[in-house]
Fold:
Amino acid sequence: MKVWYTLLPHSSSESSINKEDDCTGCTQNKFNVIDSDPLLTELRVEYVKQQILKKLRLSKPPEVSMPLSTLPKPLINGNVLRPDLERPAENFYGKTNQVVVFPNEGIADSTKYHQSSNHITGFNPAVCFTFYLPNEMLYVDVTSAELWFYKEQVENVDELKQTFVLSELDHWDQGGRFEKNTFMAIFETDIKEGWVKTDIKFMVKKWIGRHRLNHSIQIACTTCSTDHDKAPVSIEQTLKPFLVIHTEPLPQRNRPKRHSNCLPEMTECCRDELFIDFKDIGWSDWILHPTGYHAYFCRGSCSTASSLTISGSQYNNIIMKLLTKDGGQQKNKIVPCCSPTQLAPLQLLYIDTNNTITQKTLPNMVVEACGCM
Structure:
């Protein structure tokens, strides 16, 4: 048995079964498919997949070379993530809310440890990392920026607290002969061993303001003995430092959710369940959070006045007047489709091809309400 369905975004018009002209406004979007629920579900899932890629400006899933098992625990546990706030979306493409940047792997580990030698830190054990900020940082407003690093335990030290000095290493000349050391921050910590974070928002905003994305950061321990050959900062793969940068937060808006969820045997326009599991579709290797989400879709009949009443569409009054015009003769000409009337954004935390972890808000990815349009 063959059936005509309308495969609009997040919607289906089951009132158009066996009548191609029942949904006159959707003719160009019709698809001749086999009447099979698994097939329709597969088509809907594929549509959602294409929307995610398109809104991330990707033509295909990124080729990630970073195994998830090597990520630092604060990322795996979600400790550095922004809460999933409900936000309206202004445009089609996703907005960057958070970026996690790892050090450049091109520098050999043996050259990262050294002794600092400047008027701020003196001759103290230090470690240096180079970070490359993504180009999109030039077009966003940074609201917070933190440097995270794993402090190793220091043996034979009497101090209860350790003092660290952050500075940026650069050169006064283009030839790189005269080194320049710019102070960034100084702080104390009583953590003997574990993750430490410090605020570097001022410096990151300064970098972006100067349109410079390549920076080397030195972490020096001023309370460590000069006899130590290295700073107590780990460079192990799962404990390596990283930057967490938050951008463009949008104010939370509490919007009323109006939707009529589908019930068994319900034929009127309603919102039905559609769960996208990123593991099932083979995307769990590059999407960190969430592991899946409820996308929903719209289905049902829009051929009766009752369907227009319960659908909650803002155009109900106009449509009902048109349907009853001239004694109902307009009914066969204007039959609305069951479509989303309210959509919500989706927040994704993912790894791109440059092994940069990014959190983006994708607009219009969750159906909140359906109506006859």
